[in-house]
Every structure is written in C-alpha cells, then in structure tokens.
Design a protein that fits this description.
It is an enzyme of class 3 (hydrolase). With about 450 residues, this protein is of the alpha/beta class. It has three domains: about 150 residues, 3-Layer(aba) Sandwich (Rossmann fold), CATH 3.40.50.300; about 110 residues, Beta Barrel (OB fold (Dihydrolipoamide Acetyltransferase, E2P)), CATH 2.40.50; about 80 residues, Helicase, Ruva Protein, domain 3 (Orthogonal Bundle). Helices cover about 35% and strands about 25% of the residues. α5 crosses α7 and α12 packs across α13. It is globular. The N and C termini lie far apart (about 75 Å). The protein binds adenosine-5'-diphosphate and magnesium ion.
C-alpha cells in the first residue's frame, strides 16, 4: 500500500520584482566587468569585487568573514547581492531579509536571526528511496458514485500493474496519484516509477518490448527495469536546514529524509527549539560524515544592517565562526551612526568594530546621467513599456537630480496616464503630470507648512 503525502519546500517566494532585470554580475571570464551586461549598468568596481567574493566562496575561503555593501540609497546594493547569489547557482539558497524584520513580539530576535541563518544553509542529500518501478501492464481507475451527489462519478482508487525483469506487482493507489499519472500521459506499455513515500510519479519512457509498433512520433524506448518492482533507488534532494527544522517540529509523513530523521529522534516536538536544532545538527553531521549528505552554504542578505542591535551583532559574530555558516552579505546606506541598543557608541554604519574588522567592504557609488538613462531604458524594456525619447530624457533627468528610485517609480504611473489619453507611448507630458501628482521626498517635505512643532497644520 502506498502512502501519499506531498511535502512542499517552504522556501520563500522571490518577492523582489524591482530587480527582475538583474541576471548576474555580468563579468567576463577573466573577472572584468563589462560596462553593461547581465542587466547591470556601471558600478564596475563593485561588480568586480563581488566577482572576487564569488571566487572566495567557491574556494571555501569565506568562513568567519562577511561582505558589507556600503553606499547611498538606489546605488544597486540589493541588486548586487541578488546578482551574486545568481552567480553561485540556482541550487544555492538565497535568503534576503531586512534588519528590522527580526523584531517581533512573538519570537526572540536572535531566534529570528537563527531561523534565517538556517534558511540560507542548504543540504544536498543522496537518499535511497523506496520506489515501485516497472512497465505498466494495467491501468484501471475504479469509480464510485460521487459522494457529494450529482451525476458525476469520482475515482476512488487506481489499480496499476507493474512488470519488471524479475516479477510483477499489482498496486492499489490513491486517486491523487492518478492525476500525476495523467499529467505524465502514462499508458499501458510505458515504464514508470512511483516514489513510495511521496507518491510522485515519473514516466521514464516506452518499454522497448513495443519498439516495433508503428509510431510516428519519436519515442524513447527503455528496457524493462532490472530487479524487483518494489526496490530502493538513489535520489538526490535539496533541502535547507530550516526545512528540516519545520518538518521535524510538525511531524508528518513525507519526504524521506524527514522520516529517516524521525526514526532517530523523538518525533513529538511541535516547536522549533534549540534542542531540536541541536538534534538535527547532530543527525546532519552524521550524514555528512557518512557521505550521505553534503552541505551547500547559501547567501543570507541582511539589508539595512544598522537596524540590528548590539545583541544581534554579538550573535552574528559567533554565527559567522560556526562550522556551518552561510555567506553573509550586509548592506547599509548609513555613515557614522549610533549602534542600536547602546547609549551613545557611534561607529561606522552602526556596526560594532569587532564585526567591522571581519568585513570585506564594497562601496557603491552614485550613477552619472548616462548610466541612469541606460538603467531607465532597461527597466522600460523589462516592464514592457513604450516611451518617447524626450520622455526618457525627462525620467533620466529626475533620476540624476532627485533619485534613481523615484525616477523608476514614475514609469508605471506614466504609462497609465499615457494610456488614459489614448497615446501608444509615454510622452513628456505624462512624465510631467506624474511628477506633479507624486511628489519626491524633498518637495513633499517642503510642501508641508509646519508651525515648528513637527506637526502639519
Ligand atoms: N547598476 C545597475 N544596473 C541596473 N539596475 C540597477 C543598477 N543599480 C540599481 N539598479 C536598479 O535600481 C533600483 C534601485 O537599486 P537597489 O539595488 O534597490 O538600491 P539599494 O539597495 O542600494 O538602495 C533597483 O530596481 C535596481 O534593480
Ligand atoms: Mg536596497
């Protein structure tokens, strides 16, 4: 009997859409940055520095260290961090947070920080999974009356016959697998395998016993699987330590690694405690020592790092030295400021000196008019808009004189204003109208007449 539960990874959704045009650092193989490449414009020195960091990470020389991207707002710090993680590959976890995210009334801040550290540490597990594999000899959905009434019938179980070189088996499966089987377009005579624990189904190809049948489409013929129908098979899986924490905190039948761990630990914990994490670390270390699993340190990006307080910084120092630490990238747009949580200790970027000493600091600089114009152009293309040359110049001008963010944010409303007056592309007047409708920070402050108390009148 096959048990069906599907556990989805709980990785965060990619919530940054302002950076969709960023594809990578845009470096040549020799590490030199092209003026415009990978969606990036300018910021050449910072991109090359990030390229060196990528090499350090690949050579595993980053432990105990972290990167700080320091520069004014809208100079591409977040974009650089994202590009850096793209360079490391898709299987590498990337966990972006903002300094202030860790403050909550429910969770201790170091706890929140720890959780994000574990989101950024991946584990590649080579597991031997229990599978059913063979050539499909029978595929019969069993129907019953729809329990909700009505005329339709629902499928209660699926009978499936599988044949391998050594024998054959008849399985009675849950209807949810039937969907998977339909999606893979499985028919009698195909070779498939079904994972026993997750119910995932994969069509391998057409059995070569049918190779002579008349077939117009190119089909991949595979031999009938060797061995028994029910057997163990090696499968590679990527999870983060946080996935393991969650899965073990709320025990559920599911991915194999979870249930294997369940056998080794008391399965009744319902909360992620330090103890639970320690237990998981122990099991993980054991797997690593046995060569079953491999650590894949990812990237933890902490934006607005001056929002962290002295306790968090102490924690960070220690966490960086741990044997399993992700690459930590910090970003700040502050110069000298008071370290949060202290009375009056002023330090660069609001970061204590002992942490500063561990940082590779990469500065980012403001863009010149031409670079701003190129960035605006890229965004126009990414957002699928059309814009007149003169209007483009006007947006770029706002980007240079006011801020890049303000300029980029004008694009979408301007396109709506343009459409309202029936124009095909954004014109100068649309940009001007949006600039009147939406103030930038400087004009907004100036427009408010106060009585000196700080309140508006
Ligand atoms: N060099 C660049 N090339 C292309 N786009 C950029 C560049 N620098 C910044 N951007 C874009 O400008 C916007 C603001 O940049 P962002 O990375 O958020 O700045 P920061 O994090 O330094 O405040 C984002 O949409 C970003 O993708
Ligand atoms: Mg940012």
């Amino acid at each position: 009997m096959v048990q069906i539960t599907e556990v989805k990874g709980n990785s965060r959704e990619n919530r940054i859409s302002t950076h969709t045009h960023i594809k990578g650092l845009g470096l040549r193989p020799d590490g030199i940055a092209e003026k415009q490449s990978g969606g990036f414009v300018g910021q050449v020195a910072a991109r090359e520095a990030c390229g060196v960091v990528v090499d350090l990470i690949r050579a595993q020389k980053m432990s105990g260290r972290a990167v700080l991207l320091a520069g004014g707002p809208g100079t591409g710090k977040t974009a650089l961090a994202l590009a850096l993680s793209h360079e490391l590959g898709t299987k590498v976890p990337f966990c972006p947070i903002v300094g202030s995210e860790i403050y909550s009334t429910e969770v201790k801040k170091t706890e929140a920080l720890m959780e994000n550290f574990r989101r950024a540490i991946g584990l590649r597990v080579r597991e031997t999974k229990e599978v059913y594999e063979g050539e499909v000899t029978e595929l019969t959905p069993e129907e019953t009356e729809n329990p909700l009434g009505g005329y339709g019938k629902t499928i209660s179980t699926l009978l499936i016959g599988l044949k391998s070189a050594k024998g054959s088996k008849k399985l009675r499966l849950d209807p949810s697998i039937y969907e998977a089987i339909q999606k893979e377009r499985v028919t009698v005579g195909d070779v498939i395998y079904i994972e026993a624990n997750t119910g995932a189904c994969k069509r391998v190809g057409r059995s070569d016993a049918f190779a002579t049948e008349f077939d117009l489409e190119a089909e991949e013929y595979v031999p009938i699987p060797k061995g028994d129908v029910h057997k163990k098979k090696e499968i590679v899986q990527d999870v983060t330590l946080h996935d393991l924490d969650i899965a073990n905190a709320r025990p559920q039948g599911g991915q194999d690694i979870m249930s294997m761990m369940g056998q080794l630990m008391k399965p009744k914990m319902t909360e992620i405690t330090d103890k639970l994490r320690e237990e998981i670390n122990k099991v993980v270390s054991k797997y690593i020592d046995q060569g079953v699993a491999e650590l894949v340190p990812g990237v933890l990006f902490i934006d607005e790092v001056h929002m962290l307080d002295i306790e968090c910084f102490t924690y960070l120092n220690r966490a960086l030295e741990s044997r399993i630490s992700p690459v930590v990238i910090l970003a700040s747009n502050r110069g000298m400021c008071t370290i949060r949580g202290t009375e009056d200790i002023v330090a660069a970027h609001g970061i204590p000196p002992d942490l500063l000493a561990r940082l590779l600091i990469v500065p980012t600089h403001a863009y010149d008019a031409e670079e701003v114009k190129r960035i605006v152009k890229i965004r126009v293309a990414t957002e699928g808009l059309a814009i007149a040359e003169a209007a483009l110049d006007k947006v770029a001008e706002a980007g240079t004189n006011i801020s890049l963010r303000y300029a980029l944010q004008l694009l979408a409303p301007a396109s709506i204003v343009a459409r309202c007056r029936g124009a095909q592309e954004i014109g100068v007047q649309d940009v001007a109208e949006c600039q009147d409708l939406f103030l930038d920070a400087g004009r907004s402050a100036a427009a408010m007449v106060g009585d000196g108390s700080g309140f508006l009148v």
